[in-house]
Amino acid sequence: MRLQESGEMYLETVYILSEKESAVRSIDVADRMGVSKPSVSRAVSLLKNGGYLEMEANGSLSLTEEGLRIAKRTYERHTVLTSYFVRLGVSPEAAAEDACKIEHDISDETFNAIKAHAAAMK
Questions:
Q1: How far apart are CA 61 and CA 81, in angstroms?
Q2: Residue segments in the chain with a per-residue pLDDT below the cut of 70
């Protein structure tokens, strides 16, 4: 099953927060993404049912193996594309915004070509 862009964004956010915090709660995700708590609750429910996310008894969120794979993939795409666009002369703000839009739709082939080109630019 292909996850929708919003699902990938939630997984990426949980991943980013989990790299900084010992426990990630729904309110942390809501704050980071600028969405309502009910929106996070609905997304968490869908992601749990899809096997991408787990919720502990204390309410903390954790990624399943598949959720972590998707989150890392999305985050890598975001960081590589943002960096690449900045090196092309795009402002950091526009680069991050555009990367966020593209990271969900770009093919593996195109992303890997950009990634290789970005590495050669260093």
A1: 27
A2: 1-2
